[in-house]
Every structure is written in structure tokens, then in C-alpha cells.
Specification:
By secondary structure, the protein is an all-alpha fold. It has a single domain, classed as Rhopdopsin 7-helix transmembrane proteins, CATH 1.20.1070. It contains twelve helices and two strands, in the order αααααββααααααα. A two-stranded antiparallel ribbon has the order 1-2. A hairpin with a 2-residue loop joins β1 and β2. The protein is globular and about 65 Å long. It starts with 10 loop residues before the first helix and ends with a helix.
């Protein structure tokens, strides 16, 4: 562990800044290529938020490293951004479902989207906590999409509400220590509400991704791989600090007589987070290729029936 008095000047701060700079350049180039191609911008525009994940999440962690403390405004902003990424992914998949060609132009159609969801089968919930009816008509498809939107957007609403209330508490009183996780702390209950809301949003979005991925002409777009990127960003920021905190309590990271458990967790998790962002930026390039937008609905039908055609793309 780097000495606290010299933390801002330590080599680890400089190295992570270089790593984040490279990750940021990669992500910004991906956004540039998206605007340059504009092959199906109706769907591509929703990827901008996802492509910004390595930049915003990474630099937020780096600032906390630099300041050696959790920053409430950064934390709430980061949570809002993550919920925006979930909503953006949902809207992106909707646009892919409604993709059709009109006079050689890639356009979006609500009717095509709902028709694409009609399979006569019922979406399956992994935890069996929500039962869905078979989607046999476009009306059934609309009801299913409303359920997906409700569960994803509820997270956005809850995070906005908790963020506003949290900032009011911080600005008006010093009674509650931000980040305190004791049972009598208001932040503990905030985190519990956020965690439950996040789990429901992720489960429904995973269900939606699995259902879409199983559609006859959607397999080549690797929808589940794309969902994994979103989930990876959440795992890095939500569950990684919990795991590190548990390890830190055992004294495996550093002697906890010199530093508090919160300090060890903050430093270690943010150091890892900054390093992981370059991995995420490379994965974004691999999983969201521009070639996806050359796979028009007609081409995807050919791919589905002829695997050799897919390998040649």
C-alpha cells in the first residue's frame, strides 16, 4: 500500500492515468467510427452511452484515488450513468428488432419490431420469479416490451430519487457519514434499495437479451455478448468493492493496523477498476463491430440458413 501522504504523487496514480488515457482514446475512436459510418444510426446512437463507459467509470475511480475518499457527487453520477447504459442497451436492441430496409436505406419500424417478437413461445425468467405468457400476437409483444421497459426504467427513476435525496442530506447535515455501511446508516438502506432495483433490471434485461438472441435471424449479432459488456461494467463497480472489502478484512492485502478497511477497499478497488477499463475498451471494439450494420435483415436470414455465408462476412 502506498503511503497516504504521497498517494497523489505515487507511480500507481500515474500508471493508471496512462492506462485510462489509452482506454479513452480507444473508446473515443470507436465513437468517431460510429458517426463516420452511420450505417444504421437509429440504433448506433444508443451505443454512444455504452462506449463512454470506460471513460466515465474509469476516470471517476481515478479521481477517488487521487482524493483518497469516496466522492458523493461522483458516486451518484456514476450510478445514473450505469442506469442510462442499461436503458440505452434496451433501446438499441429494440432498434435492431425493428430494422428494415426501405429503398436501400436502413430504417426503424415499430410494426416490424413487434412482429419480430412473435414466436408463440414464452420468454423464460432464469430465477422463475416472473412468469411470461407466450408471445403469439403483436399485442402480446407490446405487453412484453412494456414489462421490460418498466423494470429497466424503474432503476433509472430510483437512482435519480436516491441521488437527489442523498445530495440534499449531504448538503444540509453532517450527521450521516457518506459511504458508512453500518446497519443504522441511511447509506446502507440506500445501497440495499439500489441493489434490489439493479438485480431486477439486470434479470429482465438478460431475459430480453436471451429471448431476442434466440430469434431465428438474431444469432449472428451476438446480443448476449453485448449484454455481457454492460453487466461487466456493473460487476466491476458494484460487486468488486464488496469482494475486496471481504478480503481486506482478513489482512491479505495489507496490514489493517495502518489503514482502515474502507481505505484499503477504496484504494484497491479503484486501482483495479482503472486498469480494467482498458480491457473493457478492447472488448467493446470486438463485440460491437461496424460489420454488424452490414448484416441487414435479409443478410441475417441467409446467415441463419447458411453458416458458411456467416464465416465469409
Amino acid at each position: 500500500m502506498v503511503d497516504r501522504n504521497n498517494l497523489a504523487e505515487s507511480s500507481s496514480i500515474g500508471v493508471t492515468a496512462v492506462i485510462l488515457s489509452v482506454a479513452s482514446i480507444i473508446s473515443l475512436y470507436k465513437i468517431y467510427s460510429l458517426f463516420k459510418s452511420r450505417l444504421y444510426f437509429e440504433a448506433q446512437k444508443y451505443l454512444i452511452c455504452i462506449f463512454l463507459m470506460p471513460i466515465l467509470i474509469g476516470w471517476a475511480g481515478w479521481i477517488e484515488l487521487l482524493e483518497e475518499k469516496k466522492t458523493p457527487t461522483l458516486g451518484f453520477t456514476q450510478n445514473l450513468f450505469k442506469s442510462a447504459c442499461l436503458a440505452s442497451f434496451m433501446l438499441y436492441v429494440e432498434r435492431i428488432l425493428g430494422w428494415e430496409q426501405d429503398n436501400g436505406q436502413n430504417v426503424y419500424s415499430e410494426e416490424i419490431k413487434f412482429r419480430s417478437l412473435v414466436t408463440g413461445k414464452a420468454p423464460r425468467c432464469l430465477c422463475r420469479c416472473i412468469k411470461f405468457k407466450p408471445i403469439e400476437t403483436t399485442e402480446d409483444a407490446k405487453k412484453y416490451m412494456n414489462i421490460v421497459r418498466f423494470y429497466v426504467l424503474q432503476l433509472c427513476v430510483i437512482l435519480v430519487f436516491l441521488g437527489i435525496i442523498g445530495l440534499i442530506i449531504i448538503l444540509t447535515t453532517d450527521k450521516f457519514k457518506f459511504g458508512e455501511q453500518s446497519l443504522d446508516s441511511i447509506w446502507f438502506y440506500f445501497n440495499m434499495i439500489q441493489a434490489i432495483s439493479s438485480v431486477f433490471a439486470l434479470l429482465i434485461l438478460l431475459n430480453f437479451g436471451m429471448y431476442v438472441n434466440a430469434l431465428p435471424d438474431m444469432g449472428s449479432l451476438q446480443i448476449l455478448h453485448k449484454f455481457a459488456i454492460i453487466k461487466l461494467g456493473l460487476l466491476f463497480t458494484e460487486f468488486q468493492p464488496i469482494i475486496i472489502s471481504g478480503i481486506a478484512r482478513t489482512g491479505a492485502i495489507v496490514d489493517d493496523s495502518d489503514y482502515s478497511n474502507d481505505e484499503i477497499t477504496l484504494y484497491t478497488s479503484n486501482l483495479l477498476l482503472c486498469s480494467e477499463m482498458i480491457i473493457m475498451s478492447f472488448l467493446i471494439i470486438l463485440i460491437f463491430p461496424d460489420s454488424d450494420y452490414l448484416k441487414t435483415p435479409d443478410v441475417r436470414k441467409i446467415i441463419e440458413h447458411n453458416e458458411d455465408s456467416y464465416l465469409k462476412l
